[in-house]
Amino acid sequence: MIEHPRAEELLDAVAGWIDSVRPSLEPRDAFLARVAANALSVVRRELVQGPAAEAAAIARLSGLLGQDGDLATLNAALCARLRDGAMDRDTPGLLAALKANITEQIAIDQPSYKPEPGL
Amino acid sequence: MQGEVFEALKGLAPTLGGEGAQIADLQRLSGGASMQTWAFAVVGGRGRDELILRRRVGSFDPDAARSVSLEVEAALITAAEKVGAPVAPLVHLARPQDGLGEAHITRRISGETLGRKIVSDPRFDAVRPALARQCGAILAQIHSAQPPEGLKTVDALAELARYEEIYRASGAERPILELAFQHLKKRAPEPRPAVLLHGDFRNGNLMVDPDKGVAAVLDWELSHMGDPAEDLGWICVNSWRFGRSDRPVGGFGEYRDLLDGYVEAGGEAIPLERVLYWQALGSLKWGVMCLMMYASYANGTDASVERPMIGRRVSETEIDLVTLLENGL
Predict the structure, then answer these.
(1) Which of A55, A77, B3, B199 lies in disulfide reach of B222, CB 3.0 to 4.6 Å?
(2) Contact: B305, A32; criterion CB under 8 Å
(3) Residues from B in contact with A at Cβ < 8 Å
């Protein structure tokens, strides 16, 4: 893998450029430029945090389901069990695993999002 | 397009403002491909009136559409006004000879609609604590209104079935959405007599005045008949709290105030559990809508950068849903 520049540095350079031209844009384009800069932030976080988050999600779902596989396979298997009623809200460990997985996903997608408070 | 709208309004000016009235400051506010919103003024012998034109471009298909026609929207605004709910009153429903197509004109009410400002701008600090109770009272009024003919009726199971079909067709495999569908289907509340619902009553569709609070309820196009708790739950969906998840009603208030305001204005007592059920169903619906908006990018319908980014908002509804389930929903 090429280290100079790293992928995150390329993203930072493009994001910095978008921010520098944003003030000169018409309102609609200025809005879309902000969305584009946000998209780059998501990509950056996914590059940095994604691999560990995915490995952790696979470990949690494998434990819950008692089977191996990649994340897509495990998600599909879990959906099938939820759909046919083999698992539901009260299945031990289910909500904890889902909460841990989605907490790491939202840290990539929207780290500033303030979730529904717990009791 | 501006010229065409201006010409049509010029022809209407005497109807709107009396003999010799002129159209001024026509300005396109927003709108997607099929619906346009314009602001303009009529200046005549009676003074200056600030008005809003809503107009559909292209034809309306009542069978395919989730939304109501602008004629029904006009009737809804009038029905809500009759029971005292704050609205932007109807001024004119377009006739074929007006040259505007399907359209209506209402008064322009001043205030703020941006949710983030309403929850955080110091200008709203004084009125903010009163908003949740006010929203409850307004919903009680709307729910008591005489519905116009032809509205669809929706209950929880029908709504879940509709969104589950869309979710299945998307091909997505998202365990939290799957769990939410199955859980909410099992726990659907007992059906009750349907009332007139606004259908999109949330922070963002309310014109809020820093002194008076809610000055007008906007955007009636998703109105339908159904469970009153649907409207009460929708304004509590965390996605419209704009960062103030600690204030469950619209990011500005408390459940208790919303429900008390509802009863004080003549609405029946509705248990909080029923509101939380519809709030969760609302988060699930918004999650599926975000998936659909991503799908419109993925299938090439809409190439804007905005669409795929909305797809990354599905996870916000998932973390809210799993938390509601942990909280005992």
Answers:
(1) B199
(2) yes
(3) 173-176, 178-179, 182-183, 186, 238, 241, 243-246, 304-306, 308-309, 312-313, 315-316, 318-320, 322-328
pLDDT in tens, B228-285: 999 999 999 999 999 999 999 999 999 999 999 999 999 999 999 999 999 999 999 9
User: Does this complex have an ipTM over 0.85?
Assistant: yes
Inter-chain CB proximity B246 and A117 less than 8 Å: yes
- Shared domain for B130 and B99, answered yes or no, is no
Residue B201: Cβ within 10 Å count: 27
How many Å lie between the alpha carbon of B72 and the closest alpha carbon of chain A?
A: 31
> What is the distance in angstroms between the Cα of B44 and the nearest Cα belonging to chain A?
33
Q: How many domains does chain B have?
A: 2
Give the model confidence (pLDDT) of B11-29 as tens digits: 999 999 999 999 999 999 8
Mode of pairing for the β-strands spanning B195-197 and B103-107: unpaired
Q: Provide the residue range defining the domain that includes B81.
A: 2-107
CB contact under 8 A, B322 and A89: no
Residue that the structure tokens 């909460």 belong to: A99
Chain-centroid distance of CA B176 in Å reads 26
Q: Quick one: what percent of chain B has pLDDT higher than 90?
A: 86
Same domain, B42 and B168: no
Residues B191, B279, single domain; the answer is: yes
Distance from CA of B8 to the nearest CA of A (A): 27
Which residue in B173, B319, B325 is closest to A103 by CB distance? B319
Q: B62 and B146 share a domain?
A: no
Q: Are A11 and A40 in contact (CB under 8 A)?
A: yes
Is residue B44 domain-shared with residue B151, that is, in the same domain? no
CB contact under 8 A, B316 and A115: yes
- Residue B82's pLDDT band (boundaries 50, 70, 90)? very high
What is the CATH number for B54?
A: 3.30.200.20
CATH number of B144's domain: 3.90.1200.10
B120 lies in the same domain as B268: yes
Q: How does A81-93 read in b/e, with b if 16+ C-beta sit within 10 Å? A: bbeeeebebeeee
Tokens of B282: 């609302």
CB B179 within 8 A of CB B323: no
Contact: B315, A110; criterion CB under 8 Å: yes
